[in-house]
Amino acid sequence: MPVELYDVVVIGAGVAGLTSSLKLAEEGLRIAIVERRPFIKIGERACGDAVGLHHFREIGLEPPSYVVKHKYRGVVLVSPSGRHRIIVPGEGIGVDSVKFAQWLLEECIRRGVELLHNHHLESVKVSGGVLERAIVRDLTSGSRKELTAKAYVDASGAIPALRTKLPSEWPISERPRVTDYNAAFREIVELNEPPEDPDHAVIYFNNDIAPGGYWWVFPTSGGREVNLGLGVVMGKGLNPRKNYESFVKPLFKGRTIHSAGGLVPTRRPLPTLVWRNVIVVGDAAYTVNPIHGGGRGSSMLAASIAARNLAEAINGGVSEESLWKINIDYMKAYGAKQAGLDVLRMYLQLMKNDELEFIFEKKVISGDQVYDLGVKGRLSEEVLNSIKRLLSLIAKPSLLNKLRLVKSYMDRAEKLYLEHYPKSPREVFKWIEVVDELYNEYSELMGYALGPRVSW
Ligand SMILES: Cc1cc2nc3c(=O)[nH]c(=O)nc-3n(C[C@H](O)[C@H](O)[C@H](O)COP(=O)(O)OP(=O)(O)OC[C@H]3O[C@@H](n4cnc5c(N)ncnc54)[C@H](O)[C@@H]3O)c2cc1C
User: Fold this and answer.
1) Nearest residue by C-alpha to atom 12 in ligand 1
2) I need a surface site. Which of 15, 35, 275, 439 has the fewest CB within 10 A?
3) Span 3-47+99-174+267-338: which CATH code?
């Protein structure tokens, strides 16, 4: 079998793999991307395609105008009855998934990145305590290649292809619980009439229609085209497509342009994004926002952080010690917030429609506070006080007690990922135990059934 030598082999040409490759190539490294899709299908995936503009600014990436299909002024959250709305400010864009990926890919290729499209990562060889080679199969010819590199990036998405092939004692091979995922289905539809609110991405909460998730209408073109979808918590025997077709599709008249489904890891990040000479980014590292399921922005963020630190470490020897700063930087920039929001996510998934309706109807939380919660990941004292005020008028003590509990666990989770995140890899095993204890204790107190670990 032919053997190639690269600085870094990246598995997956999604937004995480392409951003990692681009940033690494900018540092002058020799990169290969392995992608099982053919070239023209790169970027074609199930997504709502809405991304907050701040994500691009944070990593200094400016997508060209032909990639941007739509501009949002914010997000509207709608109560289960449909009667109450919260407007969350914040500029966002709707991207053309394929054009966006193809643009990133062109930028990579222009900087010398080699693309092995139609190539599937089949197996790996671990030797001397490191990942020594990746064995990939050419899906057109059936032939195999062995790729060797100083470091490997797993950017293979929600069902990770690389890290799940690594020794189980490496903490990056962790398998999450089934309920850590949402299963989602979406269609791009050209409506007969323009959408009701073309300026906002609209999210509908209803735990009967979309248990443990939500359904959405994201205008995508300034015209009549919309991205309609629905997500549900995984592991409860629910089928998002079925719910979409029963409840959402009948509300809209139009022509379906494209349908697709996928998984979203709506949880706290992988305990460590690095081990030995392997780095994990994007959905493979669960960098998604646990509440709204947006993962493109945080994938790009994780990829840039990883690339910056990897480029610095690569010539001095790659190991979890030399790459540890990737974890420190990521947890500080986004991961700690995810840890807090993961606690809130479980609570929201348990909420009944009447409790959700109450929050909306009584204006317990404002759009600015929701924005703040999204950005900082913290439930403010202000929100709790407003609930307390309202609950003194209405007999709902259980809601206040639950929210107090949620807030205290959110704060503790965030602290664990921020202030108490291991300073070195040696401490990570003990830390994982403490984290697991916290989430297990919380889920038991809330009556949240975590379910088994995934089978892949
Ligand atoms: C229905 C739905 C709606 C969503 N809506 C939004 C939204 O509106 N906004 C937002 O920000 N996020 C949204 N997300 C989440 C977002 O799409 C993801 O977080 C993001 O695209 C993850 O990018 P990634 O690069 O990590 O993974 P992916 O895009 O999944 O890329 C992984 C790549 O790896 C390749 N690959 C996998 N296995 C192998 C293998 N063995 N060998 C070679 N290649 C392999 C795959 O073909 C793929 O191209 C949504 C997700 C879903 C499912």
Assistant:
1) 294
2) 439
3) 3.50.50.60
What backbone phi and psi angles, to 5 degrees, belong to 351? -65, 140
- Of ligand 1's listed atoms, the one at least distance from the Cα of 18 is 25
pTM attached to this predicted model? 0.96
Determine whether the shortest distance from the Cβ of 94 to ligand 1 is under 6 A.
Answer: no
**Coil, helix or strand for 196?**
coil
For residue 309, the surrounding DSSP H or E stretch is helix 296-313
Q: Is 160 in the pocket of ligand 1 (CB under 6 A)?
A: no
- Domain ranges for the chain, please list them: 3-47+99-174+267-338, 70-93+178-264, 339-446
What digits encode the pLDDT tens for the residues 114-128?
999 999 999 999 999
Is residue 412 exposed (0-12), middle (13-18) or buried (19+ Cβ within 10 Å)?
middle
Check pocket membership of 240 for ligand 1, CB cut-off 6 A: no
Residue 285 DSSP code: G
Q: Does the structure show a pLDDT above 70 at 391?
A: no
Ligand 1 midpoint to CA 272 (Å): 20
